[in-house]
Write a structure and sequence with these properties.
The protein has about 140 residues and is α/β, with parallel strands linked by helices. The protein has four helices and six strands, in the order βββαβαβαβα.
Amino acid sequence: MIELFNNRFQKCYHDSDRSFFINVWKPDSQSLGERGYKKEQMLLWNTIRKVRPRFVISDSTNFLYAIDPVEQDWVASEIDRLIADVHLERLAIVLSHDFLALLTIKQTIEEGRFKNITRFFDTIKDAEAWLFPSSQAA
């Protein structure tokens, strides 16, 4: 697995052998603000478009930004487009420990057409078990 980028708010990795991508949100996500959040999401989505994985984990354990309803609609629309662009098969989300952030993440997923390929998990290990047969889990 190679690191694609690492900044104040998130880091991303790609495993080309398993067509797998993971982003890990950092606690500083709490200070993003609307403009910063959108910038980070675009960075994330553009990186996914470059590597075109079949499987994605978004580790939101330390995601602390509450997504407002207008942003939720925008995110859902953009993720719908992203999934169509890269033919994403499964999206696993490791849940935030922050109640408000967790609630807004779930609401965002409910807005999109991608809820059929998305599942929520408490740990990365559980998410990987869903994404891959046991022989491919890390």
